[in-house]
Give the backbone structure.
Amino acid sequence: MPLEIEIKYLGVDHDVLRGRLRELGARFLDRGFEANVVYDDPGRRLKASGTLLRLREKNDRCVLTLKRAATQTSATAKIYEESETEVASASALREILSGLGYAPALRYEKIREKWELDGCEVCLDTLPFGSYAEIEGDEAGIAVCAQALRLPPNKASRATYHELNRQHRERANLPPDESFVFADEDQALVRKALAPRADG
């Protein structure tokens, strides 16, 4: 199963980082709103085994992903085994998953803007609880990209967005909730983030 290696950076100013990407000659890939549903069985056995089964809809595309912790580990990066495939019909896939005994366990949303820089994918992510950057590639390439983008090492994190959501809710004294979606009052932010720009 292919490996996904990534590092997140917390509290990122997307406008500043976008400017640095342009200065470095990075290639804009795409921007879109992602609606994700994580599936599990009633006993949450996939979660217990460290496995994520996700259906993502973005820009009229539907992608099914299976992700699990890799045997390879790193002190700085998060490493997963990941397989994914695009599917023609989200509704048909939902019926298939239901027939196999899987049901939605949680939902999450984000706005993701993707760039390519020196063989790495740099994502500018807006979530309901903050702005982040994620760099995916090999570990050496990620380190080179992060340095070129002047992302401070003390802002690097191996946490998943699910873990960051839990930490955010604890800090804000909010009740536990595995799902994180944009509230109605955030829809203007969503529209602004998805507005066309000269770079893409």
In short: The CA atoms of residues 17 and 149 lie 7 Å apart. The chain has one domain: 3-193. The helical segments are 14-23, 45-48, 90-99, 139-148, 161-171, 187-193.
